[in-house]
What does this fold into?
Amino acid sequence: MPTNTEPINTTDIPTLSPSPTPTETPSPTATNTATPTPPPANFWQIDLPETFVSEIMLPEGSSWLSDQKSSRYHIVPFDEGKSLEPLAQTDWTYVLVAPFFTVTDNLSYEELRAFLAGNSSPDVTREDAKVLMTQNDKAAILHLLNMSWAKNIKTLMELADMSADAWGKDWAIVPFEALDPQWKVISIDGISPLDHDFDPEDYKLNLRVGVFHNEQDDWENPEDEFDFSMILPVPNRDRSQLTSLIMTGVTAMARDTAFTMETEGVLYPGEKIRDLMRAADLTHISNEVSFYEGCPYPDPDYEGFIFCSNPEYIKLLDDLGADIIELTGNHNNDVLALYKVDSVPFTLDLYEKYEMQWYAGGVNEEDAKSPLLIEHNGNRLAFIGCNSYGPTMAWALDERSGAAPCEDFGWLKSEVANLRQKGYLPIVTFQFQEDYIREATSLQERDFRDVAQAGPVIVNGSQSHVAKAMEFYEGSFIHYGLGNLFFEQPEFYITYDSFIQEHYFYQGHLINTRLHTITIEDTGQPRLMDPEEREKFLTMIFAVSEPLRRTQ
It folds into this structure.
C-alpha cells in the first residue's frame, strides 16, 4: 500500500470529455476481399492505440470505410457501444509497473488517477517520479482512466525508448506483452494481470473493444454477412501462452519439522501456503534429504546433521502440487553415510511414482548433470544445477548416486550456453557455501555472476537458510538465497523469514517475477506475511541489495 497517509484530493483530476463526431469520409468501391490496411483512424475515434488498429482486418466496402456516424458498424471500446451486444470483441490489457525494487504492491484506481494528475505519490522515496507511456498508448490509457489529460506523465515515442530500470524512479503503464523482469507489476484495486484468476472485465486498465452494429442502421442480420471474429486483433494477454513457475528455497523434512509432521499430520506444514503453491503452472521444491524406508521416528532433540525422511512425507510435496524437484542438496547421501544404503534410487522411484521430475542429482554423475527440459504453453524451460558446497560424499560419481558437482563451473556454463542456443530459457540453481548474513558475499558475487554471463534467465542460491540480497546482472535475475521453506532452525531467528518466487514466462521470454514473502511458525509451517511484516522485510532486503548495483 502507499506509504503516504495524507488524504487524496481527486476533485482536480481532469475527466475525459466526449470525442467530437468524426467528419464523413468517401467510401471506396466495395469488394469481397479482406485487407490488412486499416481505414482512417477517425472511423473509431482516437481512443484505440495505433498498434491495435494496425492489426484490425477489415473487408473493403461502404459498410466499413465510412465515418462512424453513417457506417453500418462501429469498432469502439465497450463503454461507447452503450447497451448493444457486440458482434465480436477482444481485450487489450495494460499494466501499471514500477521499478523492481519498489515496496508498494497495490494502488486503488483513485490513487492511480491522483498520481497521474500530480496530486500524490505512491512512494515517498520517489516523490518526483513520472509515469511513462508511449504516444501510441496514451489516448487509450487516459480513456480507461476517464481523464482528458494528466500532469504527471512522460510520453515517449516508442516502447524501445522505455528501458526498464530495476533501481529507477519512474513508473510506467505498458501493454501486457511489453512487461520486463526489471519492472514490478503493481496491482490496481487488488487485481493484477499476473493473477491466476485474472478476469479482464474486472480490471481498470483493460481496454475491451467490440464491433457493434450501428443502432441507426435498419439491417437486421449483420452476422450473416461476415465472420466478425476475424476482424479484431487477438488479445495481447493470451493465457494459453503464459507460464507461471513457483521456486522455493531449502526443504529438509527432518528433525523438528519431521516431528511436527508426525504429531500434527504430514500435510500440516503446507496448509497455509497450499493455495499459492498449487495455483502455479509449475512448482519447484529443493528437497535436500532423501527418503528411506528405514528412517527412524524423528527425535526433536537431535542436534546432528545427518538426515533422512520417512517416505510418507512425499505426500506433503504432492499436496502442494510439486512438479520439479531440485537435488543439489548436501544431505542427499546421508543415508549412505549413516546406514550404508544408497537411498537415492528409491527416492527417484518415489518421485516418478508421484509424477515429479528432478534435476541436479541422480544415480551417477552423468545423470546428475543432465538438464531437465520442460515445455509449457510454448515456453521452453531448462533446469540445471550443481553442488559446490559438498561435502564430497554428497557428490555423484561415475558409479555413485548424488548431486552434480559444480567443479569449476565450466561444464555448467557450457551447457547453459548450449541450451540458450537451442531456444531454451535456462534456470540455474546452486547448493553454494552457506552463511547466515543477508548480504551476498564476495565469493557468491564472483561465482553467481560468472555463471550469469553464460545466459541463464534466473540464477538462484538454493543453499541459503537465510533470505539474501538479489540483483539483475547481464540479463539474469540473481537471488543469492531464498531462505527456508520447510526446515526448523529455532536457534537462528534470521531463518524465519523467506521468499517464494513466482516467475512468469510469455511467448518464449521471462517477463516478470513476483516475490511472495513468508514467515515460518510452529517449527516448520510457513504463512504469508501480513502487509506490515512484508513492507518491513522487503525494505530491509532491498537495502542490502542496493550495494550490488555499485559493483557491476
About this structure: The chain has two domains: 1-237, 240-549. The first strand starts at residue 34 and ends at 35. The domain at 1-237 is CATH 3.40.190.10 (D-Maltodextrin-Binding Protein; domain 2).
